[in-house]
Design a protein that fits this description.
It is flat, with a radius of gyration of 13 Å. Strands 1-2-3 form a 3-stranded antiparallel sheet. With 70 residues, the protein is α+β, with helices and mostly antiparallel strands. It contains 1 helix and 3 strands, in the order E-E-E-H. The longest helix has 13 residues.
Length: 70
């Protein structure tokens, strides 16, 4: 199986966090600007490391959390 290689960088103007977390300081930001990948970073450290998840894995993880199964 050939895994896709994550991008070296996500578009700098495409980071966002959930509107429900606007008043919170401990949030993550998400970036879906790269084909087939989603980037996740700490909103308090925007120049820190970025985790890159394959889109399908990220979508599944969000669905599991939203369903209350995790």
């Amino acid at each position: 199986m050939n895994a896709a290689k994550p991008p070296a960088q996500f578009a700098s103007d495409a980071w966002f966090k959930a509107s429900a977390s606007a008043a919170q300081n401990e949030c993550v930001e998400v970036n879906a600007s790269a084909p087939a990948f989603v980037g996740v970073r700490d909103s308090k450290a925007p120049n820190g490391p970025v985790l890159a998840f394959e889109l399908a894995a990220f979508t599944t993880a969000v669905a599991v959390v939203a369903s209350g199964a995790l």
